[in-house]
Amino acid sequence: MKIFVTGHKGYIGTHLIGLLKEAGHSVTACDINLFEESQIAEVNTPDLELIKDIRDITIDDLKGHDCVMHLAGISNDPMGDLNPQITYSINKDASINLAKLSKESGVKKFLFSSSCSIYGKGVNNDLNENAPVNPLTPYAISKIEVEKVLAEMADENFCAVFLRNSTAYGYSPMLRIDLVVNNLLSCAISKGDIRIMSDGEPWRPLIHCKDIARAFVALADAPEEKIRAKAINIGSNEENYQVKDVADNVQKLIPAAKIVFTGEVGNDPRDYRVNFDLLYSILPNFKLEYSLQSGMEELYEQLQKIHFSEKDFDGERFIRLKLLRKHLDKISIEN
φ, ψ for residue 158 (rounded to 5)? Predict the structure, then answer.
């Protein structure tokens, strides 16, 4: 299969390129390379690489491809809040335009990287794909808006599917520590304590970044009639955790680190426990490669290898929001 990937130089994308190449696919990839400073190891390379803004992708770039895997975008809630106008321009408008160009160019499958964050303040403790969405941020709103348009576009010639990813964590050559698991673990390593800014009560579904990439690869091969115009939660029922549970797991790895509730953000309004039964009904042979424990152990080992320090924790290199502020001129609304 010939596959076009956006965001291949990101936290998840670098895993995805490697997995696609291992599976024998031909890969074209596009990324603006905004976070190149975060690289800590060799990254997987596509067959053809385009260093350009996704808003500049053309029909000619897409022609001849069987599938588009769209990961690029402003990548989490705090970053989306920094400049909502840019978030909507890139995450919503550019995603919809990319889908239209893909369909026009003859692409048959379009896999969109959505997010479980669209559930916001969950209405129950077992949120499946039919649960009401409750977006609390521009990032989450943009994901829902794209899903709506893609559902309308989907037909027998254009199979659009929306991967509602759990909260990512774990090791990637394009490291980031601004995710709950990575943040708590890197804080313990660099500062000697585990700082929880909320009250620790909110639920999050968690998934290793490589397992998200594995789900993309698996769904690309899934029968179209099973996935067309569907939202699919990506994760595992066993991998729902409260933030305080994550802290406890960090402490098991680093017993000397003390758990500290800073109370900076009070009660985090984002609170969602998610059901993943649909994923495994579509892909009965799919299993996560990582549990929270094994993923954290791997990340702990990798952070030690690079001698992760307090300077790294407080700096900008591994925090997407700080890098985004630094390079905001590269993704201006005028583009």
Answer: -145, 100
**41 and 23 Cβ atoms separated by less than 8 Å:** no
Is this structure's pTM higher than 0.90? yes
End-to-end CA separation in angstroms for the chain: 32
Span 205-248, pLDDT tens digits: 999 999 999 999 999 999 999 999 999 999 999 999 999 999 99
Model confidence over 4-51: pLDDT tens digits? 999 999 999 999 999 999 999 999 999 999 899 999 999 999 999 999
For residues 215 and 208, what is the distance between their CA atoms, to the nearest angstrom?
11
How far apart (Å, rounded) are the C-alpha atoms in residues 296 and 182?
8
Structure-token match 């000619």, residue found = 60
pLDDT of 334 reads 46
Distances 280 to 170, 286, 297, 309 between C-alpha atoms, Å? 22, 7, 26, 40
Count of Cβ atoms closer than 10 Å to residue 131 Cβ: 17
What does the block give as tokens for 104? 């026009």
Average pLDDT in the 146-157 region? Answer: 97
Amino acid at residue number 94: A
Task: Provide the greatest CA pair distance for the chain.
Answer: 57
Q: Please report the sign of the dihedral spanned by the C-alpha atoms of residue 273, residue 277, residue 282, residue 285.
A: positive
For the CA atoms of 77, 42, 18, 93, the dihedral, rounded to the nearest 10 degrees, stands at: 30
Tell me whether strands 203-208 and 167-169 are parallel, antiparallel or unpaired.
parallel
Counting every residue written for the chain, the total comes to 335
Sign of CA dihedral 165, 169, 175, 177: positive
What radius of gyration do the chain's Cα atoms show? 19
| Count of other CB atoms within 10 angstroms of residue 176 | 24
Strands 48-50 and 67-70, by their bridges, are unpaired
Quick one: angle between helices 180-191 and 243-253, nearest 10? Answer: 40
The per-residue b/e assignment along 38-69, b for 16 or more CB within 10 angstroms, e otherwise, is bbbeebbebeebbeebbbebeeebbeebebbb
